[in-house]
Specification:
The complex is a heterodimer of chains A (281) and B (841). By secondary structure, chain A is mostly beta strands. Chain A is built from 5 helices and 17 strands. In chain B, helix 2 crosses helix 17. Chain B is globular and about 75 Å long. In chain B, 25% of the residues lie in helices and 17% in strands. In chain B, 65% of the residues are buried. The mean pLDDT of chain B is 97. Classes of the chains: A mainly beta (281), B alpha/beta (841).
């Protein structure tokens, strides 16, 4: 038996919205009973994209985080639903039965990921079915994965080592993570490159203000000693440290032979452009 | 999936699709479901790695909403007449845009329109009728505007309106005078540049370019995977754009935001650095270019202005630090750098500024200083240049053999038989109509010769225009200073206005008679993906696969809508010209004639193609890449499939399309034709913009507005026609039940005006007022605001009142009418200043 999953590679996602629109196309106004009843034509999305902008000035990053039903192994939504109204198929897909769940709005509230919508007219809690009706019909992909132009949205069978998703999980290893695993729902959906805090800046040499110092060594160290790293500035004197711990304090040091080192302590309570580190002789 | 479903094939402006229909309704639209065996992916090898596209077609995002667009809440379903329009009595032109409509029958509608045409033709001649189309609301060569519309209107000897090259103005009016390519309207050839970049390029400078949003115009998202490859390969990307654009975000590239309109200064400072540090390609400049000395003197301050174009000077103009300019110039010169400009190579907002033609010339000249055409050194938009079979010919919409009024398959080439010499120009059309006279230069798209740009046109020369026939789309959102279009429509000089379209758009409700057209999914047609032909021959190199589709009628036309061909046939019939217009052909007859005229008919029969619905043209096994302009560098005859190049195949085939055959730092064509034009000097100049940073208007309106091409819609198509597109939160934003158009503003500017994300604001200047919803973001620097052009909707607070604030977001109401020059008629929407205030307390 297959064990289906979705993964989102945020490093590749361009925020093009193709997946969101394809999902609308498949479900808006279309019944796929007994797996799903028609989604309202407007203002409902079972797949959404969150735009995350970080940083300041010219040192910014914009990421797109797709969000949908996480098809949890411990679906908290099921705990509030009538018997059999929310069930997990043998292939791992979590389904809200449109017949048995009718009227149960608590399902919407129980989802810690806030990805279940309430269809007021039909009195139904509705969400992503991982295109189960298509899979049952012999298709090998979901509508969202089918149209992703960069391979950022990956669908497949975790039990098949040759599936796209298995290859992705193997290749990316530890970098693949669940979204908010601390909520305890054991989500099946996986993410790569969830936005993390970064510190960026640039180095300037006071005596040569008309050129950017490339190749300057810049170090970062957490004040609590939990991490340290080193990089060099690029040809524009820019540097950045990615994947930092939020709200940790860091010491950033720039060093170039013949100049006094410059040091700055930064609290990474959000991504920060720390501006210019000016080296003087 | 239900067995009752039928699957049809079709083509859109963003790619090929499969359309699933049940009980006469579309239930889903997917990217064309091509059989696995029909895919034969090409392979590029670079640095020991192989690159090959997936077996799939990647359509443009809005195409995913094609079902939603066909079933749109905004379809025009019946012929309509403005309630206070009486062709035999009071016409009340001043009420256009204000009055409502009443449903009439097709018979009445055709009677009114054909009677009016007859009256005007008899009394004033066909020239008293004019009309204009938008581009690409539907795909398919039989139904396209250059087909039936052109065939019908030219049959009446109407007055054509020249399009301005609105997406690539500066390249058209400027770059052509540095390196030719006028037959591509100033955009350079792009053949095999993907392979060249993967193999040879070390850095890519994207200058005013957001390929992830503009997508090579019609190639959907085919090139998105190329940019993933470039990113993964570690090729450094630098983005010069006042907006931190979507490609910049996707590629995590370095961002250098210049003030709008300062790009030319920035480019000149880069040239300055290369000259003084002697890091330009002297051999190339010596052998392949002319006029460098004059240019060098100007840059170094030895020209008439005595001003050295130093990085420190450019830093003042652009707001980018001197050291960044110097270091960028050094890195650029030390690496094999590709300059990435615009959609296909040659678009982007910087070319639509007051000095857009100088900027575009500088782009060419910068690359000329580094050896344009050498391995890895290109002007490459990042959206074209895949391996492809360009030998197999299939008609494209903008080439004569793809037009039913010009192709050899027609017995009478009616589009060529128009006796009227009278012409109008889109940018000055409102003035021409309202004043009754107008002079302008050029012939719109000047793709036949450089000299076309210098011809002077006078209107009227035959008959003032009394009837305006508008077809598809809305210019309120795409042209400049667009409230003048409102005034034009309300002017009594227009005795009748007809609108023919599938959807309600901003301009539609300014017509007296509205004729409902059906969409491309509601009629038969035939079309190749992305194939525009004409000024971009072999545009299929923007796709990973060459796909030709039989566009099958999937569902019955909505309401009483009819195909454009059928509408023109009905009119032609009343005018006694049905046989002349149709030659007895149905739309399907034309489709078959076009197909039979193509090379594809040798590989697959019409019957087979018709049944299967598509044909994929494979890349030949022995494919040999011919990188763009490599032939020029190596002094060989042009070997690329740039079939529009008039020197190709002649004894001058190793030359460029300039007068000298070389790249011209000092333009020979300008020297010979307009030597004293201060607005377009023979070498590119930097001049302060009349509406740029520090200008007089800027002192009153301190925010510079840029309005690039939109990301989630195409021209005015899909916006306001698709609920699902409207609901994309980055496209429109809902507040109090209305979907507002976003304006992006820096936190500093927002703070100063007490604005927060979600506030409804008024953007205003002396030309007008537009309401938008605020998005506070670091993606624009302080002093610059960003709001996309191309709102399809026009919804003034007081209906039909030209200076009333537009709630729908047509920010081009704010942009200037002033063109690049008297003899340089390019529009300049990105030279625009305005101010913002809160609309509601």
């Amino acid at each position: 038996m297959a064990r289906y999953a979705l993964a989102f590679d945020i490093e590749k996602c361009t925020g093009c919205y193709s997946c969101v629109l394809a999902c609308k196309d498949e479900y808006a106004g279309n019944d796929h009973l007994p797996l799903s009843a028609a989604q309202p034509y407007s203002e409902h999305n079972w797949l959404t994209i969150k735009e995350v902008e970080q940083g300041q000035g010219t040192k910014i990053k914009v990421d797109y985080v797709p969000m949908t039903c996480q098809h949890c192994e411990n679906p908290l939504c099921a705990t509030v639903a009538p018997e059999g109204a929310v069930y997990t198929r043998a292939d791992g897909i979590v389904i809200i039965d449109p017949d048995k769940s009718k009227g149960c709005k608590e399902i919407v509230e129980a989802c810690p990921y806030r990805v279940v919508s309430w269809n007021e007219e039909a009195q139904l809690a509705q969400k992503c079915t991982m295109c189960a009706h298509m899979l049952d019909n012999g298709e090998t992909t979901t509508r969202c994965a089918e149209c992703c132009p960069t391979g950022a949205l990956i669908f497949g069978d975790l039990d098949d080592p040759n599936s796209e998703i298995s290859k992705f999980m193997t290749e990316k290893g530890d970098r693949v993570e669940a979204y908010k695993p601390e909520l305890g729902a054991r989500p099946v959906v996986r993410y790569l490159g969830l936005p993390k805090v970064f510190i960026a800046g640039e180095v300037v040499c006071a005596d040569t203000p008309a050129e950017c110092p490339g190749g300057v060594k810049v170090r970062i160290a957490a004040l609590d000693g939990s991490m340290s790293a080193e990089t060099t500035t690029d040809f524009l004197g820019d540097f950045e440290f990615k994947n930092l711990e939020c709200n940790q304090q860091y010491r950033v040091t720039a060093e170039l032979q013949g100049y006094a080192p410059v040091e700055l302590v930064v609290r990474a309570n959000a991504s920060k452009n720390i501006g210019e580190l000016v080296l003087t002789k | 999936m239900s067995t009752q479903e039928q699957v049809f094939t079709s083509m859109t402006n963003g790619g090929p699709i499969s359309v699933y229909v049940k009980d006469g309704k579309i239930v889903r639209v997917r990217p064309l479901q091509i059989e696995e065996n029909d895919y034969k992916p090409w392979v590029i090898e670079a640095d020991g790695k192989t690159y090959s596209p997936p077996k799939a077609v990647r359509v443009a995002p809005p195409v995913q909403a094609e079902r939603n667009r066909t079933d749109s809440y905004n379809r025009i379903l019946y012929p309509l007449k403005r309630v206070d329009f009486d062709p035999n009595g009071e016409r009340n032109p001043e009420n256009r845009g204000k009055s409502g409509y009443e449903r009439i029958s097709w018979d009445e509608a055709i009677t009114i329109v054909s009677n009016e045409m007859q009256r005007l033709i008899v009394n004033y001649g066909g020239a008293s009728i004019s009309g204009m189309t938008s581009s690409h609301h539907n795909w398919g060569i039989v139904g396209y505007k250059m087909g039936p519309f052109s065939r019908f209107m030219n049959m009446l000897h109407y007055t054509p309106v020249f399009d301005n090259p609105d997406s690539w103005e500066g390249w058209h009016w400027g770059a052509t005078h540095t390196y030719g390519y006028y037959w591509r309207l100033g955009m350079p050839e792009q053949f095999d540049l993907l392979e060249d970049a993967l193999k040879n390029t070390e850095m890519i400078v994207l200058w005013s370019n957001d390929p992830d949003s503009t997508r090579g115009t019609y190639s959907g998202q085919e090139s998105a995977i190329w940019r993933v490859w470039v990113k993964e390969k570690g090729i450094k990307t630098v983005f010069i754009d006042p907006f931190y654009n979507y490609t910049n975000a996707a590629m995590d590239g370095t961002w250098l935001p210049p003030r709008p309109g300062s790009d030319t200064a920035l480019a000149m400072a880069i040239a300055y650095t290369w000259i003084v540090e002697e890091t330009y390609d002297k051999e190339y400049v010596e052998a392949r270019t002319v006029g460098f000395d004059e240019f060098r003197d100007y840059i170094l301050g030895k020209g008439e202005d005595g001003l050295a174009k130093t990085p420190a000077w450019a830093a003042e103009k652009s707001g980018i630090a001197e050291r960044k300019i110097v270091s960028l110039a050094r890195e650029w010169a030390s690496k094999r750098t590709s300059l990435s400009c615009g959609s296909r190579g040659g678009e982007g907002g910087a070319c639509r500024t007051a000095d857009g033609m100088d900027w575009a010339r500088m782009m060419v000249l910068l690359q000329a200083m580094q050896g344009l055409g050498k391995p890895g050194i290109s002007i490459w938009g990042m959206t074209m240049g895949a391996p492809s079979d360009s030998d197999k010919w299939f008609p494209a919409y903008a080439e004569p053999q793809g037009m039913m009024g010009k192709a050899n398959i027609a017995q009478r080439k009616l589009s060529n038989e128009n006796k009227t010499k009278q012409r109008l120009f889109r940018l000055t059309l409102p003035e021409a109509i309202m004043r009754g006279e107008e002079e302008f230069y050029g012939e719109g798209f000047c793709g036949q010769s450089l000299e076309q740009q210098f011809t002077k046109q006078t209107y009227p020369i035959e008959a003032p225009v009394r009837m305006f026939y508008r077809y598809g789309g809305s210019f309120f959102g795409t042209m400049v200073d667009t409230s003048k279009w409102v005034k034009m429509y309300q002017c009594p000089n227009l005795e009748m206005v007809v609108a023919q379209d599938c959807w309600w758009s901003g301009e539609t409700k300014f017509a007296d008679i509205i004729l409902p057209a059906c969409t491309g999914l509601e009629r038969n047609d035939i079309g190749e993906w992305a194939a525009c032909g004409g000024y971009t021959t072999n545009a299929h190199i923007g796709n990973n696969y060459r796909v030709i589709a039989r566009q099958q009628k999937c569902v019955e036309p909505a309401g009483e809508s009819k195909s454009d061909y059928e509408i023109f046939t009905l009119l032609a019939d009343r005018l006694g010209k049905k046989e002349l217009f149709t030659e007895g052909n149905t739309e399907d007859d034309w489709a078959k004639l076009f197909f039979e005229s193509s090379d594809i008919a040798k590989d697959v029969s019409w019957e087979e193609f018709n049944k299967k619905g598509y044909h994929v043209v494979p890349v030949p096994d022995n494919y040999k890449p011919t990188p763009s302009m490599r032939w020029f560098v190596e002094g060989r005859p042009c070997d690329t499939p740039d079939t529009g190049n008039p020197k190709r195949g002649t004894e001058k085939a190793h030359e460029l399309g300039t007068y000298s055959g070389k790249i011209e730092f000092s333009s020979v064509s300008l020297r010979e034709n307009t030597p004293d034009d201060p607005e377009r000097p023979v070498i590119p100049h930097y001049r302060e913009s009349w509406e740029g940073y520090g200008s007089e208007p800027h002192k009153r309106f301190p925010l510079q507005l840029i309005s690039p091409h939109p990301r989630f819609s195409f021209h005015t198509h899909y916006d306001n026609h698709c609920t699902w597109i409207n609901e994309i939160p980055l496209h429109r934003v809902e507040k109090n039940g209305y979907r507002w158009w976003p304006v992006r503003i820096n936190p500093e500017d927002a703070r100063e005006r007490n604005l927060q994300t979600g506030d409804i604001v008024e953007l205003y200047n002396d030309r007008g007022s537009v309401l938008c919803i605020t998005q506070v973001t670091e993606r624009v620097p302080a002093g610059t605001i960003h709001s996309y052009a191309s709102s399809a909707k026009y919804d003034p607070v007081v209906p039909g009142k030209a200076d009333s604030p537009d709630k729908a977001g047509c920010v081009n109401i704010l942009t200037p009418s002033k063109m690049m020059g008297r003899m340089v008629p390019g529009m300049t929407p990105n030279s625009c200043v305005c101010e913002i205030r809160k609309w509601e307390a």
